[in-house]
Amino acid sequence: MKYKICLIEDDRILGEALLERLELAGFFCQWFTRGDEASNALKQQSFNAVVSDIQLPDITGETLFLELLEKGYDIPPFLFMTGYGTVDQAVRLLKYGAEDYLTKPFEVPKLITMLESLCQKHQPDNSEIIPLGVSKEMKAVEAIIPQIASSHSNTLITGASGTGKEYVALALHKASQPTNNNPFIAVNCGAIPEALFESELFGHTKGSFTGAIRNKRGFFEQAHNGTLFLDEIGEMPLSMQVKLLRAIQDSQVTQIGSEQSIKVNVRIICATNRDLEQMITENTFREDLYYRINVVNIHIPPLCQRTDDILWHAQLFFEEYAKQQSQRPITLHPRAEQALLVYPWPGNIRELRNTLERACVINRSSILTPENLFGDTWKLVLSRISKQRSENLSSYIQLCECDYIRKALTENKWRITDTAKALGISRKTLWDKMRKLGLNESK
To answer: Where along the chain do its domains lie?
Structure first.
């Protein structure tokens, strides 16, 4: 992981030297020469550690540290640099919660060692990262999210519709701001009428056009100090793309009807299911905007290529549904699990969740069968199962057992005693198998 360091040093020769050495050591470093500039950055961004001189031109390092503490900011560990005349100050700061101090002049390798130790000690728990799946593909995405989050780089998430691009964007946002309640504003560019795009993104003042009955903050202002997620960026009109590019480059927006620019600190994450490079060749997407938003690219494969995630997503849905309905979680019949795994899911996670929700609403059973899930299309799914060469022996035996018992129950008009006798098993054994396989007369 590339740790992010906030360096506060007004001596330009020393500051430049430390910046160069820290970056050579693998840190991502932002250097400030004034306390107020550093304070604003610490309030708006996430850092793994702070290296600060005590004597600064506007305020002291002690004042900066104590003001952040008093205002309740969750600040990273502070490491102070001090001359012999301010050692007492540095010791006092340790009592207030600073991590350590170095007396000038000091050896830079010692500083680097101390920083590596501090960053590892205070590294955020990765268990707080939103889980994205259990497949190797999604685990790979999870693994790179902390590194991307620390960079604050614009990110483009690509993949087919319904693959979970917004989940990834939200996970990236959470990793960028693990302890702050900073806003996450999601915008579907395909759902905004072209005439309203500028107003929605940048805001407008009262009376700036017909219908503007009040001042309105745009999505950029709403996402200040947080994340703006522009979903389906390929649907944005060409006329708006140049204005979006300007806002991203300048980190400022101007409301319709105003001449005053507004500074915004926003992380930009975009997503698309379209081929933007092809759109560039067709002159429907700006090349300069593409390179601005595609600093880091994350591709999400379709659900059919990561089948390990299918049952995981199904379990998540059942848990959510049970909480909403105040009931025990619904489970899947083994044949239903097999059906979910072989179905191609052209609509990806969105289609999977819709299928599960429809089955839960229509059927009151606590165990869902393939027929509950797919209805009239079940025979088509069954044909895919029969062609599946990779099914394991236990699944095949269970499928045969279920069909055999169902046939016996039907022949004996679902009389348990007669069916058990015909099968050569006890009534209790038959009941246990029916419960395990989800068999009842209504199915």
So the answer is: 4-121, 127-301, 302-388, 392-443
